[in-house]
Amino acid sequence: MAAPLGAAPSSNVLAGRVIVIDPGHGGDDPGTVGCHGIVEKDVAMEVSRRVAGVFRQAGARVVLTRDGDREPAGPGGSGGERIEAHDLARRVELANKCGAHLFLSIHLNHFSEPDEYGAQVFYQTGSRESRKLAEAIQAELNKNLVDSGRQALAGDFYVCRNSRMPAVIVEVGFLSHEQESRQLTAPAYQERAARAILQGVVNYFQGDKGEVKQHG
């Protein structure tokens, strides 16, 4: 039975695991701007810090790709696309070099239709383990935030494609949705999201008896 979200999981399945948490965007790259002027990079950082906290409580070693309002790539370069590519490469390089078991990139969603809502998890097309991880996290987000009927989706994403470990992008909710955008800035809601992500990861590892995963 899954541990309640009010407490850290009783299993030691995360002890010694290296988990890279990637707060999306940062620095000159704000990400999307939603209702009430809420900026994605700021909410992604807040949620990521909470995710980092619950994973550390569960015994994992956590590495953040950024801690504050800055891009891992630092200054330099000419042209937004080149800077963005460098930024993403630095995030992936950090995860690969530290021998991470998982890569979790935290983002917020936005859509032109303001009635879209709900968290959604994405994974790299063709990666069996990343799909299992994404589905495990999606199930917990649907259970513990709001069940919008969303399912984990495959796609082609730089950070997922180039990571040597299972990697997913977690879109915690829609900043373009009036009510959800307010919830996403609330500490209690962010904590629920963090604990749902944690439980999804625990379920993923427990589903395969805690074996160390390889990308693919």
Automatic annotation (TrEMBL):
Gene3D superfamilies given in the database record: Zn-dependent exopeptidases
GO molecular function, one term: N-acetylmuramoyl-L-alanine amidase activity
EC number(s) reported in the record: 3.5.1.28
Coiled coil: none
InterPro entries found in the cross-reference section: MurNAc-LAA_cat, N-acetylmuramoyl_amidase_3
Alphabetically ordered keywords of this record: Hydrolase
Transmembrane segments: none
Keyword Metal-binding: no
Pfam family, one: Amidase_3
The UniProt record lists the keyword Cell division: no
MurNAc-LAA domain mapped to chain residues: 92-202
Name of the protein in question: N-acetylmuramoyl-L-alanine amidase
Taxonomic source organism: Desulfofundulus luciae
